[in-house]
């Protein structure tokens, strides 16, 4: 029974014990590691080993355990290695002088050769024996005691070289515990032995509990374990409580021993003890209030280490323990129906049956962990699913944005796979080719390319491999009307997540107009020179064939008029000759006026002074009148709501367009009637030049390389205007020009 109690108590170490156990393990680890750290052994560098003899008063070791705490504490604080020798006395037999003398002789013979440096004694019987042994071994041998009642030293002055730690058994505290748990107690019986040590505590029991005699009666049951002693205990009246104080004695083994009596008594009466929890707890006793056994051992070890390190015992004062607290057996509390609420705070409850949590905590922890893991997995799956949906929604939204952007972009955008097949076509492509949304998918892009450009495009695709990045091309692509138009595209390779080539994404713009413009620009210089030469030739022809001839005729007429007349005999002949000369002078004057008028018209074509001084409308009216007279045609000019004044560049542009338009109409239409109209449109002006002649095809006229239409269109574009030509063969022609006016012009006109 006692061995089982010791095992259970050791299974529940206090924090101090755990700490010192770690210290001891660390010391052992250092000791084992020392041969590998360059220090061969303690024998070479450490001081000589010290010897410590420990004397316990009782032979039953389970009642006063934790001797290892003394060893660990001393070794952890001592500067020298320490050897321990432990002896367990049977204090009841020490009362026999012969036995004590023989034991002293034996110990003297044994420990004279292995002389202790410190002697440690547990409780008063061992302290008395240690003092006698010291006289025989070494009178100066230091003694350290523990588990000793300070009252035992009253009137007994300690000799030099003795120190230690005392404790006062909390007999009154244990009695208060009895009355707390059993308030109806009427009788308290003390069961103890007849040894000197047991009788000392019996007297101390009665001295401490004098004040309780008015509440309860006390009964002493003294004797060695026997059936007679058991009968006396069992004969106690009801509402009795037993204080069990029998000390063990291994030299005797009666049929009815100490432990058996404790078990039988505790089944009949609530049983408590005052010396140590191990005296009764575990054998049927409820418990009591006791000092901390481990604290006693640790402090005793600390005092011993101080002495081994050279400190004198006389300089070390005797220590007192930190006090007692209840130690209780949970099984006996429930057996005697003592509720948990009655247990004082700070009590140490042993043998508490584990609850459902302690029984199943690992199952519960495992189940909780499994639930947590499953919950985390479920949360992870939900999060992953939510994240995936967000990604899918984001991808869908990104796809919608891409398609919207691609469909509304002014460029042709398509994608192809690694084999050159279309996988996506934007709206501009469908509008350009005139196809339905799904018509072109899957087709080879080469099917839409001009046959003359297919080879170059394929070569560009081959040379522009995915490894070389993006590339550009220019080629002709078939439009929805079947005609081929020039496009410029930029192709970039696409790759999958694994890095494999997925095809190309291509964006293209129609550059047909730019191509034509570039071609026109390439030839515009020659055309301008040619036009200049033509204009010079026209002016030269006008001057040579018309003006110069007329001037020559005028000169001849003037010469003839200036020659002196031959004398005529008859007055009639002289008058007739004079009249002819006067007529020739008049004709020369008329020819001179005609030449001046022709020169004026020619100068107006080159530069209209009316435009600078009178404005656009008068200048157009004058030009149309002069053009009619010069070419013997009818030009009808009308105007309405035209702002005045207009910017000179706009006025000059309109005048030049009218001049070029009428000149081309007279030259090519074959008509004699033309209409020129100019009207305001609120935010600009609109010009019409019409004829009902032979008509023409604008594309054909432009293909012939004439500069007239080109110069008119460029003049109109310079003033941010637009020009439209409506002409068909046999139906005449109409040139329409719209030129916007800025806000400043409207403000000035207002």
**Overall structural domain count:** 5
The major sheet is characterized as: 6 strands, parallel
Report how far apart the termini are.
Answer: 127 Å
* CATH class descriptor of the largest domain: Alpha Beta
Layout of secondary structure:
Layout: H1 2-10, H2 15-33, H3 42-45, E1 50-56, H4 67-77, E2 82-88, H5 97-113, E3 118-122, H6 123-137, E4 143-148, E5 162-166, H7 171-181, E6 187-192, H8 196-208, E7 217-222, H9 227-234, E8 240-245, H10 258-268, E9 271-272, H11 277-280, E10 287-291, H12 293-308, E11 319-320, E12 324-329, H13 330-335, E13 348-350, H14 356-408, E14 412-416, E15 422-425, H15 427-433, H16 451-463, E16 471-478, E17 484-495, E18 501-510, H17 512-562, H18 571-606, H19 609-613, H20 616-631, E19 634-640, H21 648-668, E20 673-680, E21 684-691, H22 698-703, H23 708-718, E22 722-727, E23 733-740, H24 743-749
Parallel strand pairs: 1-2, 1-3, 3-4, 4-5, 5-11, 6-7, 6-8, 8-9, 12-13, 19-20
Antiparallel strand pairs: 10-12, 14-15, 14-18, 16-17, 17-18, 20-21, 21-23, 22-23
Write a structural description:
- The protein is α/β, with parallel strands linked by helices.
- It folds into five domains: 165 residues, Response regulator (Rossmann fold); 150 residues, Rossmann fold (3-Layer(aba) Sandwich); 102 residues, Beta-Lactamase (2-Layer Sandwich), CATH 3.30.450.20; 91 residues; 143 residues, Heat Shock Protein 90 (2-Layer Sandwich).
- 49% of the residues lie in helices and 19% in strands.
- The strands form five sheets. Strands 2-1-3-4-5-11 form a six-stranded parallel sheet, with helices on both faces.
- The two termini are 127 Å apart.
- The N terminus and C terminus are likely disordered.
């Amino acid at each position: 029974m006692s061995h089982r109690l010791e095992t259970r108590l050791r299974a529940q170490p206090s924090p101090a014990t755990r700490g010192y156990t770690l210290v001891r393990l660390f010391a052992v680890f250092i000791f084992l590691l020392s041969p590998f750290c360059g220090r061969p052994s303690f024998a070479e560098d450490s001081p000589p080993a010290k010897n410590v003899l420990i004397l316990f008063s009782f032979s039953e070791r389970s009642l006063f355990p934790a001797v290892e705490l003394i060893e660990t504490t001393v070794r952890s604080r001592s500067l020298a290695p320490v050897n321990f020798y432990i002896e367990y006395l049977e204090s009841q037999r020490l009362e026999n002088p012969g036995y004590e003398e023989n034991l002293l002789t034996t110990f003297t013979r044994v420990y004279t050769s292995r002389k202790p440096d410190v002697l440690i004694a547990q409780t008063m019987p061992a302290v008395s024996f240690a003092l006698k042994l010291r006289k025989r071994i070494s009178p100066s041998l230091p003694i350290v005691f523990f588990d000793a009642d300070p009252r035992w030293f009253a009137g007994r002055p300690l000799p030099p070289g003795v120190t230690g730690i005392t404790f006062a058994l909390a007999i009154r505290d244990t009695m208060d515990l009895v009355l707390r748990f059993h308030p109806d107690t009427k009788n308290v019986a003390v069961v103890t032995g007849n040894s000197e040590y047991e009788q000392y505590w019996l007297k101390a029991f009665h001295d401490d509990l004098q004040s309780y005699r008015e509440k309860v009666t006390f009964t002493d049951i003294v004797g060695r374990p026997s059936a007679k002693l058991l009968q006396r205990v069992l004969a106690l009246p009801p509402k009795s409580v037993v204080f069990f104080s029998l000390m063990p004695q291994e030299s005797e083994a009666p049929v009815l021993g100490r432990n058996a009596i404790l078990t039988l008594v505790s089944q009949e009466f609530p049983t408590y003890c005052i010396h140590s929890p191990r005296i009764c707890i575990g054998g049927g006793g409820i418990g009591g209030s006791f000092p901390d056994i481990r604290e006693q051992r640790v402090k005793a070890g600390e005092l011993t280490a101080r002495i081994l390190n050279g400190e004198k015992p006389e300089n070390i004062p005797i220590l007192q323990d930190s006090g007692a607290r209840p130690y209780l057996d949970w099984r006996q509390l429930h057996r005697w129906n003592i509720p948990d609420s009655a247990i004082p705070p700070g009590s140490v409850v042993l043998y508490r049956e584990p609850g459902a949590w302690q029984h199943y905590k690992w199952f519960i922890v495992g189940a909780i962990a499994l639930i947590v893991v499953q919950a985390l997995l479920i949360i992870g799956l939900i999060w992953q699913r939510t994240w995936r949906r967000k990604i899918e929604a984001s991808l869908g939204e990104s796809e919608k944005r891409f398609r919207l952007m691609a469909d509304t972009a002014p460029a042709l955008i398509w994608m192809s796979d690694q084999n050159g097949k279309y996988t996506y076509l934007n709206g501009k492509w469908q509008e350009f080719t005139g196809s339905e949304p799904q018509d072109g998918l899957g087709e080879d892009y080469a099917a839409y390319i001009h046959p003359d450009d297919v080879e170059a495009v394929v070569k560009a695709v081959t040379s522009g491999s995915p490894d070389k990045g993006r590339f550009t091309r220019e080629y002709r692509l078939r439009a929805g009307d079947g005609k081929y138009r020039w496009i410029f595209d930029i192709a970039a390779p696409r790759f999958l997540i694994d890095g494999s080539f997925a095809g190309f994404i291509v964006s293209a713009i129609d550059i047909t107009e730019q191509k034509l413009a570039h071609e026109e620009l390439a030839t515009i210089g020659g055309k301008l020179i040619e036009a200049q030469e033509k204009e010079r030739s026209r002016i030269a022809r006008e001057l040579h064939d018309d003006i110069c001839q007329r001037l020559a005729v005028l000169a001849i007429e003037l010469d003839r008029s200036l020659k002196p007349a031959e004398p005529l005999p008859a007055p009639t002949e002289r008058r007739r000759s004079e009249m002819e000369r006067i007529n020739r002078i008049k004709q020369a004057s008329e020819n001179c006026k005609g030449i001046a008028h022709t020169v004026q018209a020619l100068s107006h074509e080159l530069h209209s002074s009316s435009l600078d001084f009178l404005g656009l409308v008068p200048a157009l009216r004058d030009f149309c009148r002069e053009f009619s007279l010069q070419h013997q045609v009818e030009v009808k000019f009308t105007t309405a709501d035209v702002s005045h004044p207009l910017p000179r560049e706009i006025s000059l542009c309109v005048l030049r367009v009218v001049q070029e338009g009428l000149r081309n109409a007279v030259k090519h239409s074959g008509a004699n009637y033309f209409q020129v109209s100019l009207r305001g449109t609120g935010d600009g002006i609109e010009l019409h030049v019409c004829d009902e002649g032979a008509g023409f095809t604008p594309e054909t006229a432009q293909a012939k390389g004439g500069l007239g239409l080109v110069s008119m269109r460029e003049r109109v574009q310079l003033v941010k205007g637009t020009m439209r030509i409506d002409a068909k063969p046999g139906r005449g022609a109409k040139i329409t020009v719209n030129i916007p006016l800025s806000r400043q012009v409207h403000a000035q006109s207002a």
